[in-house]
# Entry
Amino acid sequence: MGTTLCCLLITGKELIYANIGDSRIYRFRNTLERLTQDHSLREELLARGELTEETAADFPARTS
# Structure
């Protein structure tokens, strides 16, 4: 059970975005660029350097 939220506010030439959970916001300018980070144990361990991209692919707890 989990809840996710993505919000966008466009005002003139500005874009303000926010996310909660593991829903992602991307920008497309010739290529896709991920703008937000997941709020998950896996993503936290990646940020701390305790997981590598290779080991994270098989990480059992994908969300927390």
Remarks:
- The chain has a mean pLDDT of 85.
- The longest strand covers residues 5-11.
- Strands lie at 5-11, 14-20, 26-28, 32-34.
- Residues 41-48 form the longest helix (8 residues).
